[in-house]
Write a structure and sequence with these properties.
The chain is of the alpha+beta class. The chain contains five helices and three strands. The longest helix is centred in the first third of the chain and has 39 residues. The radius of gyration is 25 Å and the shape is elongated.
Length: 147
């Protein structure tokens, strides 16, 4: 019995140096990706929350473009959303609804000459407030339909 246990313990050496090196490299790559891409996704979350808060404005249809952009900018500034989302706000008014669209890309350098491009598209259609923040229509289709 003792002889079998000794033989069994000899076979169980654990992971080799190269095995541990591969595990550490994979974990490092995953942590690098999360640290580089995470802020973009957090900003995207707050862009959606900003549109949901805008949808709760009682006089949204009567607000001018500059008022809407000012409200979104104020929300983005309070929640530390910087860069492209604040610059890419588009507002289209239709006959019975209004579309606020924030369609932007983030390019984040990952390492050496490898970049990650993240695309986000959030829309608020006042006719479908309950479906806020999902891209419902193409902007060109919305323009053609309501003009």
């Amino acid at each position: 019995m003792a002889r079998q246990m000794t033989a069994s313990l000899r076979r169980q050496r654990g992971m080799s140096y190269w095995g541990w090196l591969v595990v550490v490299a994979v974990c490092g790559f995953i942590l690098t990706c999360v640290s580089k891409m995470g802020p973009g996704y957090i900003d995207s979350y707050y862009v959606g929350e900003g549109l949901k808060q805008l949808a709760q404005e009682p006089n949204l249809r009567d607000m001018s473009r500059s008022d809407i952009k000012r409200e979104l900018d104020k929300y983005f500034m309070l929640n530390n959303v910087r860069g492209q989302p604040t610059k890419s706000v588009k507002i289209l008014r239709g006959a019975d609804s209004m579309l606020v669209s924030i369609d932007y890309e983030l390019r984040q350098p990952l390492f050496y000459n490898v970049d990650v491009v993240m695309k986000f598209n959030k829309q608020l259609n006042t006719a479908k407030v309950d479906q806020c923040c999902e891209p419902l229509v193409d902007l060109e289709q919305f323009r053609k339909r309501d003009n």
